[in-house]
Amino acid sequence: MEVKEEAAPVENAAPELPEGVADIDLLDADNPQLCAEYVPTMYTYLRQLEKETAVKPDFLKGCPINGKMRGVLLDWLIEVHLQFKLLQETLYMTVAIIDRFLQFEGLTIRRNKLQLVGVTAMFVASKVEEMYAPEINDFVYITDNAYSSSEIRQMELRILRTINFGLGRPLPLHFLRRNSKAGDVDVLQHTVAKYLLEASITEYEMAHCSPSITAAAALFLALRLLEPDVTLATCWTESLQHYSSYTTKQLIPVVCKMAAIVVKAKDSKLTTVHTKYTSKKFLKVSQMEELKGDIIQKLAANNMEGL
């Protein structure tokens, strides 16, 4: 048997801690199950992996499918995800699989097959993430028998071959949890950041943004909206900057895009995420006054004055 080439080594293990920044992994040092000593290296690897599995800007250009159709598909898949009571990771992996597949095969996928791509991607993601994944016939049923189980299996093989069976793309949730720990944020701030992340899923113009920068921008915006005493210059602390590896200047353009998404959410036809986050389980964050106030309106208009 031929020996395959070894995988490229992880570039630079974790960077040194700057002065004044606490080691957040020390909190878990006594729990061997959390493998605290490996965490910095693992996150360095995830950052390397997200570059290798990047999605290009405007990857649907010239395809029969456009950004609006992608948005409608993902809005429906969020409903399916809710109905099946699946994990958050399954949803984000589904989106990553769809975008990476369409980036290579978008020119060959007709509009009437887009829903097939969507349910197949969720079928694959479920098998990776879920303890008890829905059966293939559940996905046939959810499409109102528009596709057969045989078509889903054929599409599954096609998707996996196209993305070279690479299902390890990091998810925004991986980075959000790390950042939330670094910022010592409360449940409400973390939940608002999750809402901002999920509201961005259906936006085509956000699809090419890396998982790490979208996670950092979502937490940045949540902190700025919920902490009355901070400014844009002070809400992203040294600890958050170190563990996310993004500066305020790098995050502001993505933060403004997210703010614009939330501001126009009330006029959008894609309402699943907004409705989902009106429930008690998610602290009814989508109804919060802070998401309608002056700060978010200014950021949506790229107006930094007084912020």
Account of the 3D structure:
- With 307 residues, the chain is mainly α.
- The chain has two domains: 67-162, Orthogonal Bundle (Cyclin A, domain 1); 172-300, Cyclin A, domain 1 (Orthogonal Bundle), CATH 1.10.472.10.
- The protein contains 13 helices and no strands.
- It has helices spanning 39-52, 67-83, 88-105, 114-129, 136-142, 149-162, 172-183, 187-199, 211-226, 238-244, 248-263, 272-276, 294-300.
- Which structural class matches the secondary elements? mainly alpha
CATH superfamily of the largest domain: Cyclin-like
Total beta-strand segments: 0
What is the third-level CATH name, the topology of the largest domain?
Cyclin A, domain 1
Give Rg in angstroms: 20 Å
Number of domains: 2
The gist of it:
By secondary structure, the protein is mainly alpha-helical.
Q: Could you outline the blueprint of secondary structure elements for this entry?
A:
Layout: H1 39-52, H2 67-83, H3 88-105, H4 114-129, H5 136-142, H6 149-162, H7 172-183, H8 187-199, H9 211-226, H10 238-244, H11 248-263, H12 272-276, H13 294-300
Helix pairs in contact: 2-4, 3-4, 4-6, 7-8, 7-9, 7-10, 8-9, 9-11, 11-13
